[in-house]
Structure formats: C-alpha cells, structure tokens
Amino acid sequence: MIQSVYIHIPFCQQICHYCDFTKFFYNEKLATEYIEALSNEINTNIHGTKNKVKTIFIGGGTPTALNKGQLQSLLELIDRKFDIPNCSEYTIEGNPGDFEEEKVKMLQDYGVNRISLGVQVFDDQMLQELGRLHKVKDVYRTLELLHQNGFSNISIDLIYALPNQTVEQFQRSLEEALSLDLPHYSTYALQIEPKTVFYQRHKKGKLHRPPQEAEVQMYEILKNSMKKNDINQYEISNFAKAGFESQHNLTYWNNEHYYGFGAGAHAYLPGRRTGNIRPLPAYTKKALEDGHPILSTEEIGLKEMVEEEMFLGLRKLSGVSKSHFRAKFGFSCKTMYGDAISRLIQKGWLTEEKDSVHLTDEGLLFGNNVFAEFLLDEEDMKLVR
C-alpha cells in the first residue's frame, strides 16, 4: 500500500533568501492553471475515489498563498480522491500572517487536522534578513486564530546558525518558541544552497555564519531545552510531545512508499523513485497534456533499498529495527554491515541494543559521516545472492 501523499504548491508572496525548494511568485492566473494541471496529474495517476492513505501533506512554497477559490478547488480534489475520514494525519504548511478565519474554517471543514507554520526565528530583524514577510506578532495572532477554530496539532519550523546569530540570540528565540507549549517543533541548521540569495552573498564573502563550535553549542542547547520541556527528540531535527510525531515524515524515515504530485515533487513507488519537472510553465504544460510531468525516474533495486533503510532509519532516535530489517529483506543487517556497525560503535557514534542500532548523542553530530559507512558495492551484494 502507498502510505502517504505529498502535494506541492510552489507559490509564495515573497521568496526567502535561503530557500531552494521549487517556488515562484504568486500570480492568480498561473496559480489557477497550476491547480488544473495538478488536478489532471492526480486524476491520471490515482484511479477511482476515496483511496485509502495514512497521511497527506500539502507543502510548498506556501500553500496558504492560494486565494480562497483556488484553495477550495485543491481541497475538493483531495477530498474526492482520498478517504479523508480514515486518513490519520492531514497537514498543510503555511506562514504566520497568511491565515484568515474563512480559510481556517475551510481547512477544518475539509478534514485538515495538522498545521505546520514556517516561523524560523523569534526576532523581527532576523526575519527581515531572511526575506520573511511576517513579524513575531503575526505568529501569536495566527496561533490564536488556529486555536480559536479548534486546531491543536500545530508544528513550527525553526532555523538556527543564522547569519551573525549568537548562541544567546538563538537561546532567547528557542525559549520563546517553547513558551508556546506546542506539540511539535522541526529545527534545522541553516544550509547555504545554490541558486539562493544567501548563496550569492556567501560567494561574495558577505554572508557570515556562526562558527562551527557555536552551531554545535546551539544544537546541544536545543536538545537539552526540548528534553527539559518533555518534548522528545525522535529524529535528528524533529521534536514532539508523545503521540504528536509527524506521521508523514515517518513515512520517509521508515523507507515506505508515497505519492508525490506537483512541480518538483518526488515520489517513491514500488521499484522506483520519480522526480517531477520543476519549471512552472513546463510542469503545467506537461501535466495538462498527459498527466505525467515526470523529469526523472530511478530504478530502486535491493542494493538501494538496503542502503536507504539504513540511511533513513538511522535519522530516527529509535534507529533501525533489526527484526524489521530481517522481515523486510530476509537477512540480518549484520550480514552486510557487521564491520561498519562495529567500527562505528568503537568510535562512539553508534550503539546497539537487543533489537535496534541507533546513533549516540555524539553520532547525531556526525550523521553524514555515519551514513557514508552504509554505502554498498556489488561485492557486498554477493553476500545475499
């Protein structure tokens, strides 16, 4: 069964200086055409109505940048194609200040039960430097509006290691975020991505990130502060109160199958991963023509499946279940990875328990180095053939 559905809405009122996702300035005509194209893609690839899925996630871009008519068309499409009452988690992303009461009520009427807010930092000056439109006061207004209309499952995104950000500034921002007593927090160190404003500034020597040791200190403060507030770290960058872990993101980290629709969206279907066309006119044209706006397809064989099971599973604090691995592939993870696991345990980056292999606190800081140990070659595959 395909567990989850990701739907990408690429429109924004303003492009943030750090963002490398597929995004375009909102234009009413282009957005209306895009919803028509998206509808054709979904109808072409999902047959029938009321299909069962575990999670739905509408991401962006900024889905709430759509006008009320466009948003309703999108929600009606999703309602026709998927069994919403039996979908355990239905999330939409949005920015503080983008919500108005009519839109919030519409979301509730169509079964959306989780909101993910792009807050990023509780500092108006830093928000401006990031290219964000909202201010801190908009976060409070939006949360009040959501709570008044019955939304309690709310997540906020935070970014740290921002240009010129001190450890003390990060700590103040985090304390304000935690004072909101929300059930879920996603937190990411700033990454300088190509084709962004920040990348251009970085190349010119005009972007000054905190030193590495300050970033590590911020991450330690983050983990400790969350723990003190009974908010559990369940993935490298994600924290939640018990029962509020993102079920949609767990689909990715559990290496399960999901649909992906919209410009630049990726899907993981049995035996293959696909990536859609990113440029808006090209996506819209192809999706309207035949409903298959696919740019790339990667065949996923046993080697790739095993690697991804380890890469993705180790992002979770619970790690990789040895019994689940054996049930899924028919052999032990130690068949291929016994030496790598032993090396990483000796380094102090990995630990092994009765039914799991997972990162240590130190290993969380060196995740990419750990993951590199689980790349396979054809010689390794001979062990199970």
Explain what this protein looks like in three dimensions.
With 385 residues, the chain is of the alpha/beta class. It folds into two domains: 4-253, 2-Layer Sandwich (Transcription Regulator spoIIAA); 320-384, no CATH class. The chain is 43% helix and 20% strand. It contains 16 helices and 17 strands. It has helices at residues 28-45, 68-81, 101-109, 124-130, 136-148, 167-179, 197-203, 212-228, 247-253, 280-290, 302-313, 322-329, 333-347, 361-365, 367-372, 378-381; strands at residues 4-9, 11-12, 24-25, 55-60, 89-94, 114-120, 154-160, 184-189, 232-235, 238-240, 258-261, 266-269, 272-276, 294-299, 320-321, 350-352, 356-359. Strands 9-10-8-7-6-5-4-1-11 form a nine-stranded mixed β-sheet, sandwiched between helices. Strands 12-13-14 form a three-stranded antiparallel β-sheet, with no helix packed on it. A hairpin with a 2-residue loop joins strand 9 (232-235) and strand 10 (238-240). Helix 1 (28-45) packs parallel to helix 2. The longest helix has 18 residues, at 28-45. The protein starts with a strand and ends with a helix.
